[in-house]
Predict the 3D structure of the following.
Amino acid sequence: MIILVDAAIYATILSILCVGLTLTYKITNVPNFAHTSFAILGMYMALIVTKIFDANPYLAIPMAFVVSGATSLFLYYFVLRILQKRTKSFLPLIVATLSFDIFMIGILNILADTITSEFQVISRDFTLRSHDILIFDMPAILILSLAATACLVLGLYYMLYKTKFGIKMRCSIENTSLAQIYCINTQRVFCVSWFLSGGLGGTAGVFLAVWFQGDPGLSVLLLPSVFAGSIVGGFTSIYGSIVGGLVIGFSEILVTDLLARNFGYWIVSYRPIIPFLFIITTLLLWPRGLSEIIKKVQERI
Amino acid sequence: MNKFYPIIAGIIIVIIASSLAFYSQQDASEMSVDTSPNAITIGALLPATGDLASHGSDSNLAVQLAVEDFNKHLIALDSDYSMELIVEDTQTDPVVALEKIQSLNSKGISLIVGTQTSAELNNIKSYADSNGMLLISPSSTSPKLAIDDNIYRLIPDDTKQGKVLAELFVYDGIKVIVPIYRGDVWGDGLYESTLDSFVSLGGTVDPGIRYSPEVTVFSSEASLLDGIVSNYVQDGYTNDEIAVLVIGFSEVVHLFNFVGSYDNLRNVSWYGSDGSSNDDAITSDKIATAFATDVGLVTTQFSAPDSPTVQHINQALIEQTGSIPNAYAYSAYDAVWLIGNAVLETGSTDSAVIISALPDVAATYDDGAIGKITFNDAGDLAISNYALWSIGEDGWYLHGYYHVSENAFDFYDE
């Protein structure tokens, strides 16, 4: 039971991150390798709110959403948008996001050092788990991360299918040129999407801070799992990415546990391989991932 | 409006670049090296960040204190020499440690105190050997590094600590040990030496769980550990006969956050090693402190005899940190003095000369914090007693001692 709770928390946080990654890929065709660094930025917002302002970590969510969202928007508007105008090649955009990730790790290291030197707060390998609260005798992180994922599903559905902005967004995704002919400001749509993507990353980061060891280098360790979730979800399906994130999150913990019990505990130290196995298997056998299954289900409904 | 965007972007980039340049400038100014012939420049490779940052911080302060004291000593001797220190943060990361030693070498620094961990030392050993650099580690204990090279270690290797842990298990009536240990050269070494010692004393050691040093969440490890302990309970062992041995650094804080949810793991005794002994990272976390107190965590670490030098270091470091320093701080302090004394003895700052002179210099160094320093053939401290640490309401306290010469324990009340 305890491990199920742990797995559920990890899986829901991963889902939120996968949605952000898929959103920007779907809209601008850029696989953002800097996405997890927005989450780590959110972790540090939680650390600042908790340790410096002595408040509950969850109060950092609005700040984390805005700061990470703004950083993501900066990446799109001042780097990727300009590159997209200059080249139609895919490669420079990937390299740009990778470079931005390295840049972000540097900024996060400076932030961590400043927090330690100015406020004498442990800012590397930190955890805020002891600052979590109980809701209905359950850790708040479980309830809130599940609630955040549920809100994400409903909120995205409402935004995409029930608002004018959602219609503009879907039009921009399907055919950008045609959308521009119909006077849709596609740049605004893209900017909002990148801001939203970064904001979701920042929000996930606050949850991560309560459950994970926070460190500037964590973004690199998280990246394979987030990409695996998005790829399993089809990489272009928002709902697929939610399911993909859940599949990877539960698998990383429960499959490791299962394998270790049956084949030996030495497997535990090789847990990071699991997301890579999912990426390889999905790309080789089901390149469109779970999105195909979800599409069939949607068609039936 | 659009034409202003590049200007705004430019301003933001300039601000960020200026900030980075400011920090780089700060680092560079702190690292300017005195190249005069009478300068004894020592490099320190210690972790200010990462899993052993807490211990690294104490060692860093002790090294700075030692340099300050040695310079006073030089003035008292009316010597022309002066000592200076360049500290590099290894981040408890073997890869970063290699980058930092290369950086020190490029500045012409070949007399080095560090590294804090065996994994880091293992990664930079070849580089130090091939470049003729002297390394004195205050805390590396892996038996795999107990070889004849340019490295001296002011601490006994873990074959001794493994024996102390095994003796402690026997003393406490433990029959089965379930280890959970860090998968690196240090964790593997201590696990093996403890296993050998305890098995030779008639105990049982489960293969346990070896975790990756990069682990960020201990869900699976905690669940599996619970399963292993549960199996031994079902096999008829009582809770008093089963113990968990955790071999790790500050990441044990996160492990304690996860294992506290499992009843089986709360009902057995827990032991730890030097990696987590007297680590403030544990006592600064409420959940980890509560768990460690509940299970009566006892950790082992080599100890220094009480002496005026130890009291001097304690006084200086307590003023700065508010707590008793880790025992590695005493080794770090002595490492600086050994290098300084070797330079005075030989009249040379050449690392090859210092390396060969060090055992003789150590033999005549009587005011050391860690007592009489005798190196074995591998250049490690030959013998030392061990302190036993526990956590109470007021934080870490000295639980007892293991006297090597008498093969006996002394226990104290909190």
Observations:
- The CA atoms of residues 342 and 354 of chain B lie 6 Å apart.
- Chain B has 14 helices and 14 strands.
- The first strand of chain B starts at residue 39 and ends at 46.
- Chain B touches chain A through 44 residues (CB under 8 Å).
